[in-house]
Amino acid sequence: MSVAERPEEKEAAAASPGRSRGPSDASPDEGVVEDLPLIDEKAVEQLTEGLISHYLPDLQRSKLALQELTQNQVVLLETLEQEISKFKDCNSILDINALFSEAKRYHNKLVNIRNEMMMLHEKTSKLKKRALKLQQKRQKEELEREQQREKELEREKQLTAKPARRT
């Protein structure tokens, strides 16, 4: 196909039925085409082939370079994703380490509380035994005092002068 429109095609387009030409259908190059001489299609094909053969190797090398670059970018993106996941793993490991250290701290607190409770239990047991001994000692002392009073009362009764009985 030629670059310039042929006059026969132009007339056929203008004479086609059912199509009215308005002001927007007018091409800005309409008058210019008629002024150009007719171009040989074979020359156009040869020029096109020459242009393509001149630029095609460079374009193909560029295409290969772009494909290689794209592949390298994909590999780089995958590597970056792996590194990001490693950093996330490291952060999660740090979180786990923090949890373990916190658990160890709370475990130590529980051990201390248990030891204190055992010590308090021992002290209360000793105090209960001591209180029981003191209570028994007081009861014994009270019993002895009571017995002592009874003895004194008995003695006083015996020492008290009794009037003689008249017979």
Question: How would you describe this protein?
Answer:
The relative contact order is 0.03. The radius of gyration is 61 Å and the shape is rod-shaped. It has helices at residues 7-14, 30-35, 41-159. Mean pLDDT is 83; it is low at 1-19. It has 3 helices and no strands. The chain is mostly helical.
Write a brief caption for the model:
The protein has 167 residues and is mainly α. It is 80% helix and 0% strand. The chain starts with 6 loop residues before the first helix and ends in an 8-residue tail after the last helix.
Q: How helix-rich are the residues, as a percent range?
A: over 70%
Gross morphology: rod-shaped
Helix-strand pattern: HHH
Unreliable residue runs: 1-19
What is the gyration radius calculated from CA atoms? 61 Å
Percent strand: under 5%
Q: How are the SSEs placed, and which strands pair?
A:
Blueprint: H1 7-14, H2 30-35, H3 41-159
Core attributes:
rod-shaped, mainly alpha, 167 residues, disordered N terminus
